[in-house]
Predict the 3D structure of the following.
Amino acid sequence: MQNHSSLAVKDILFRDQFDRTKVIAGLEGLTRQVKWVHVVEVLNIKKLLNGNELILSTGVVWKDNPSLLTDFLQQLIDCGAAGLCIEIGTYTSSIPKEVVDLANRHHFPIILFLEEVQFVNITQDIHVQLINQHYQMIQDLEEYSQKLNQKLLGIENSDEMLKLMYEYTGLHIIMNTTHDETIFLPESSEEIEREVKERILNDPQSRFLVKQPLQVLEQQLGEIIIFSNEREINEFDQLILDRTTTALAQLFLRELYVEEKRRTKKNEWINNWLDGGYSEQETLDNLIYHEGDMCIQGGTVLICRATNQTTNSDLTYLILFLRSVFEQQGFHLITTERQGYMVYILLNKRSADTWKQRLINGMNKVFHTDFIKKHTCKFSNFAVGQYNRSLNKIGRSYETAVETIKLQKNRGTDRICHYYEDLHMYRVISLFKTNENLHEMMMEYLYPVIEYDRKYNAKLLQTLKAYLACSGSKKETAKQLFVVRQTLYYRIEKLERLLGRDFIANSEKRLAIELMLFVHDYLFSSEHMQSVKTDEQVKT
């Protein structure tokens, strides 16, 4: 079934009212589509046209000045009209050469009525034809959509959908994918296919050609191209293309979803890997077996928590989305679920020197897309662990990612994704976190300030952090805390009484207090609260 569902200028020339006509210009434009017919007897028409109109005129507006026809014709060309039909005899006897030349340059048809005609009969005849074709197009599209849905429910590849598209349009079809796969319909020789590709490359704006990207989860998986050697691409063709592209995207999404579900069943060896149960060679062997042979330069682990609102479908689609983003940044993604965390192992396939910037680029893209914006409430903050060049040490990256996500709540930043590399002092503290005296030492330095805040609901600890971070600059500290100078001076006097007047001047004491502030944040993160003694117990 090859239903063009459009009317071209050349088709109209076969209507009864066009028996006595002559095409004097724009022969190459006879394939232009006609969507409506207008009778125009005014010169300024730019605001009156939408494109693809066939214009009928007696020429009365330029009868006394034939040069006005040139400007009139240029307006029609600029508006994308389908062609110009002029009645010869009543007001116009001839068409200037410069007008014919202009029309030929733009492949714009000029048709002369060689005898008087009734424009009302022409418009009625063509409009009835257009309306009937539009009604038929709606029926054909409905039929096509039903057949497309049937194939979507049953087929395993895209070939059948493209064949159905070819059956309905009769157009040449090319589907290119990001995996360097090309499907060409109808099947042709390599020479013809090469000529067609060159033509598409050389004339991408042709009216005989339309391209449409094939996108899944905001990633372009390829494109579909339709073109013809004989006629312009019409509205019906474009609607068929749009429906086919949507159906193919659903097919590819289904395939990706099934593949992702299969991947999630491989959790056993991944958990053993994270537990450090494999040597470097055993890790490589497992990766080749489960993921395929790859050149890996190391890797890291990204984790996040799912909220109570998150469904299994949400998690699967998040994995699909993250995979599409990070593949573009040079990472191979392996996923699992562990201890309440969603775990994304990112294996680096490019230079180890650029891994962090590429990962940051990927996360920025993730958090600025509609997909995550719609699902933000279902996932908590993300954390990235230590980068390891040895794959059998990926477990360490997971441990540091967990440590990072535990600490980030008390760091007071607005960042959505935190990196273990940026923890600095917290990483130092973590080296001796098992020391039972760590909490006691922290309270030795900070207890007076903590106790004062507790009794008087003050903000001395916050002031102390800001004052030290600003290297003792009162102006910068006040600015950071959004307080007036007098308020800051009062707080600093209190701190000097509680900590001693030398807590800034004595460099060793200042360094110890700064370290203990980091220890305080570390120990009082939400994940450590249950194991820390209360202030009153320590005081006793």
About this structure: The CA atoms of residues 26 and 108 lie 4 Å apart.
